[in-house]
Amino acid sequence: MPTLDDPAVRALYADERELPRMSFGDHLDELRSRLIRALLAVGAAIALVMPWKTEVQEIILHPYRVQWRLGFLDWIAQLEAKEAAGRFAGDTADRLGRDYLAFCRAHRDSILAGDFEYPQTLVQNTGYGVPYEMYALNGLDDMMAYMFAAFVFALVLAAPVVLWQVWAFVAAGLYPQERRVFYRFFPFMAGLMAAGVWFGYRIALPYSLGFLIKMMNPGQVGAMFSIGQFLNLEFALTGAMGLVFQLPLVMLALQRVGLVSHQAWRRHWRVTVLLIFIAAAVFTPPEPVSMLLMATPMLLLYGLGLVLTRLGGSAASSAAAPSAEVGR
């Protein structure tokens, strides 16, 4: 059976509608071969990632480290405010707080740089109640979390091969004009996905964690984060951000297929804003900061979608006008 995704094979036919038809069995054989190649690429990427456990986990923990450093600097500011108020001098001096401040000042640079040699002692020596490290709630928690992280990293590394295999299978059933539409929009889709993941990783997750920690009363609740739970939260939030950043392309696609016009998007903006906040509440943890951090870029993306649908509608009208003149 010819490989219909091969450009050399397609070039033999003047009209692609004359290409040979594949039977259901041929489709299954093609799908199996594409899946095997994609899985081999993912397996090779997993083998490549597995030896780098420390480096992979540092990348995973970066949002947590960001909020920890911000909280640590805020803790130092609180201790210095007590010192300025005279709490660390006299017969009723707060000696423990004075010792905490002295330790923080002596090791501040190495702690913030992540070079402090004994990070497991920071809670006791600085008085800052948020642990620098994550906790494993059982013997397998750390390993299972790392296996999941390694799989995700492997998917990212193998993405070019996996996406090519998926596209080669799908493209065999598309006409040239349909493939051109995909080539036009795929870079924007990938770019919006990457922007959404970056926003969730660098902004939404650290500040959401910071808000949750500030809501805790140290005299009642101590912060302790499980590596498995944190990993689930991180990938859920960054994945949700990557998906919701596709909003402008979804709006443009719905306009292209004739389901929702630009005028309808603009006329029902109140309903759209309400749906945006509902989606943000569903896809984020039950606290307001995460919801606002997701809803705000979605509102901006909705504005971008309005611009794209207006431009797309104008282009379609311009293209339809010469056709109407020819019809007369």
Overall average pLDDT: 83
Envelope shape: flat
Helical residue percent band: over 70%
Q: Report the order of strands and helices.
A: HHHHHHHHHHHH
Give the N-terminus to C-terminus distance in angstroms. 47 Å
- Strand runs, count: 0
The main β sheet shows up as: none
Low-confidence stretches: 323-328
Sheet-strand content, in percent, reads under 5%
Structural class: mainly alpha
Tally of discrete structural domains:
2
**Radius of gyration computed on alpha carbons:** 27 Å
Q: What is the overall number of helices?
A: 12
Summed up:
The chain is mainly α and 328 residues long.
Features:
328 residues, flat, 75% helix, mainly alpha, 2 domains, disordered C terminus
Report on this structure.
The protein is mainly alpha-helical. The chain folds into 2 domains: 23-173, no CATH class; 178-315, no CATH class. Helices cover 75% and strands 0% of the residues. The longest helix is centred in the last third of the chain and has 40 residues, at 288-327. The protein is flat.
